[in-house]
# Entry
Amino acid sequence: MQQSFAYTLSPDDQLLIETHQLGMPLGIYRRKLSTIYFFGAVYTLIFLTGIFSFIIAILIQQHVIGANSSSGFDVFQPIMSGVFATLIGLLHLVLGVPRERSRHIIVCEQGLIHACKTLWFKHVVDVFHWDDISSIDQAFFGQTRSINYRNQKVQTLQITGGYQNMEELISLIEQQSGRNSGDPG
# Structure
């Protein structure tokens, strides 16, 4: 994958590459659209379930109280559960889906960058130099790779199958780091 990535790198990504002296970018890997749509669908389902349970709780309250005012039926918990699920679903739709869209990995000659935007568009960035990687492990039927690296503390980056060209990404990481999946450090 030897092509120019200058047109797809953001100024922040270019600055990170230069600051950490990672060399030329060899590949940029973003989240698959199907993964982003999946997260969006799950969060929408949570949101709609919250609205539905809230409406059902209100209808039950109106029916029970209208029929018998001394029934002792408490609808506070179902109403609050509906409101909570609605807020959680909405929060994830507003913040979680854009985070997944922004998540990407840039593989360079001297290391890789894992970046995404979080709450209020703050950038979260992990920078790995190839010398810092102690092992690459397979998990979940080969769909997930754990890259263990050591710097000030031992940390792990989980790369799931939700990235575009996953096999190419893992192959490039293994080639550049000199480690294969399952090899000990």
Observations:
- Residues 33-67 form the longest helix (35 residues).
- The helical segments are 11-19, 33-67, 76-102, 166-177.
- The beta strands are 25-30, 104-108, 111-117, 123-129, 133-139, 144-150, 154-159.
- The chain has a mean pLDDT of 78.
